[in-house]
Q: What sequence folds into this?
């Protein structure tokens, strides 16, 4: 039997689930345990196919609009990405029982937007048009109150004057480097713009991107485990490419590995987006172990100990008796 080629594997850490994703998944599973199926979830609870399919098997029903909710006695959960204010208002009109699984870091951005609006400021949101988190943030205020920009060019086209009171906020799952460039463009045009008291880009996004940057010079290729509709996972792939990794691929699972691309590599880095479970990383490593003699080393750039409690309606002390 021919000997397997050697492969150095750099396992990036931190990787995978962040505190907001853990909380969101726990919200659905706890609601199922307390209330029983079905539990409705408006939009994917997090952007990961494996997670969504796992929750469907347990009794979750995913919908894109509240008019798809057939059982008005069942709880309806809002996803980790957050929702526009019109959504809870619609749910109240329909007399639905709702549970909000919005990531607290997204909620922080919502509160910043509301605070700036109350002070009469023109608000700039750095983000990707159409992403659920951006839709939810824009929907915290009246239409037109927030100007969305996704590039330096769009900053240059903003219809604001230098003398106006300006503030900016950002989507939480962006590329740190891309956002830095856009922020610099905003501050060039509006030097007195109000900046977030702390960076809006979440700690998990920042930490995972930093690990990718550190790993990049050590490898020829990188696999980012995550779904295509996951913004933070896509940004990890882009960060790897920008850092000089020749082959950088986003894969949903081991089944989606392009072996023609990875068959000849001798050094590989593996990471995972904040919505990707560790089991998928393990399956990717197993797939490579079947083809290579692997030497694995972990590259750790930060320790994460963030924890977000469940919404009050799902905590032990407030759960219905007999649950």
A:
């Amino acid at each position: 039997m021919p000997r397997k080629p050697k492969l150095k594997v750099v396992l990036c850490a931190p990787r995978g689930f962040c505190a907001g994703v853990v909380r969101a998944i726990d919200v659905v599973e706890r609601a199922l345990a307390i209330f029983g199926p079905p539990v409705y979830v408006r939009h994917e609870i997090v952007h990961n196919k494996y997670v969504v399919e796992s929750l469907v098997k347990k009794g979750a029903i995913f919908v894109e609009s509240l008019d798809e909710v057939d059982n008005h006695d069942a709880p309806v959960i809002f996803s980790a990405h957050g929702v526009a204010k019109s959504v809870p208002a619609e749910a109240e009109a329909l007399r639905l029982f709702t549970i909000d699984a919005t990531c607290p870091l997204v909620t922080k951005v919502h509160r910043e937007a509301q605070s700036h609006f109350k002070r009469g400021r023109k608000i700039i949101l750095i983000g990707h048009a159409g992403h659920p988190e951006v839709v939810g943030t824009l929907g915290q205020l009246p239409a037109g109150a927030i100007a969305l920009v996704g590039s330096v060019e769009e900053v240059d086209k903003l219809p604001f004057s230098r003398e106006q009171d300006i503030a900016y906020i950002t989507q939480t799952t962006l590329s740190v480097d891309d956002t830095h460039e856009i922020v610099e463009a905003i501050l060039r045009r509006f030097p007195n713009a109000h900046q977030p008291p702390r960076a809006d880009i979440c700690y998990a996004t920042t930490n995972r991107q930093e690990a990718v940057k550190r790993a990049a010079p050590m490898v020829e290729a990188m696999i980012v485990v995550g779904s295509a509709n996951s913004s933070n996972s896509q940004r990890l792939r882009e960060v790897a490419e920008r850092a000089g990794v020749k082959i950088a691929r986003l894969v949903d699972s081991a089944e989606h590995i392009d072996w023609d691309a990875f068959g000849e590599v001798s050094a590989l880095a593996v990471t995972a987006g904040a919505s990707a479970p560790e089991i998928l990383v393990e399956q990717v490593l197993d797939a490579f172990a079947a083809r290579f003699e692997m030497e694995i080393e972990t590259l750790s750039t930060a320790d994460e100990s963030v924890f977000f409690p469940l919404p009050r309606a799902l905590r032990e002390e407030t759960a219905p008796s007999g649950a």
About this structure: Confidence is low (pLDDT under 50) at residues 317-323. The first helix runs from residue 19 to 35.
